Amino acid sequence: MSSVTTLFPITLPATWQQSVNTLSSTLADWLYDPTSLTARLKQHCQDFRVELIGQHIEPCHSNEAKGNISAGEQVLVREVLLYCDNTPQVFARSLLPLTSLTGEQQQLAHLGTQPLGQVLFNHPNLARQSFEVAEFLPHSSVGKLAKQLNLPMTHNLWGRRSVFILAEKPIMVAEVFLPNAFAYQHGVYG
Fold it and tell me: Is 115 contained in some domain?
């Protein structure tokens, strides 16, 4: 476990929007890619791994309520880092309503260091709702995480969130690209 576990829960208060016109084409491609982020990251590295920062149950905050996930509803919050070749690429925060963790979906509460995306995208009946994106400044909670990881922030960070529907059960996943992420690099990764 790294020292970032002391920051849990990191949370992602932000102004989420449907679209932003000022993004580079590379960043927009990563933010609006409907395929598995886990699978895409794995294509760009030899060693992919997930670090579990923390996981606990809490009421859904009003700024994270969306679609079928209501403010005040009990959710399992899971925060992880996605690494490619020991470089932290993505901070992910997932909200799994306890009402969604029934039946076959109970396994989602016990993923540990297994990527949630890999499990979700293996289900043929998975649906994903539209993306929202947000910008994160250096003093934001995820900016503080980057500092804790010794990742210098020479630019603001960008993230996305969407709700997945799995067997008619909602799951919110938010992902923020950290300072050294492929999403900010031009050329081969676009």
Answer: yes
- State residue 95's pLDDT score: 96
Give me the average pLDDT of each 10-residue run along the chain (190 residues).
77 88 90 93 95 95 90 96 96 96 90 88 86 95 94 93 92 96 70
| Inter-residue contact 125 to 158 (CB < 8 Å) | no
Domain residue limits at 95: 16-184
The answer to whether position 118 is within a domain reads yes
Residue-level pLDDT at 190:
39
Residue 183 near residue 27 (C-beta atoms within 8 A): yes
For residues 46-84, b (16+ Cβ closer than 10 Å) or e, as one string?
eebebebbbbeeeebeeebbbebbeeebebbbbbbbbbb
- Give the whole-angstrom CA distance, residue 113 versus residue 132: 26
4 in a structural domain: no
* Number of domains comprising the chain: 1
pTM of the model: 0.93
Q: CB neighbours (10 Å) of residue 97? A: 19
In this structure, what CATH number is given to the domain that contains residue 30? 3.40.1410.10
Q: Is residue 9 part of a domain?
A: no
Instruction: Note the pLDDT of residue 119.
Output: 84
Residue type, 139: H
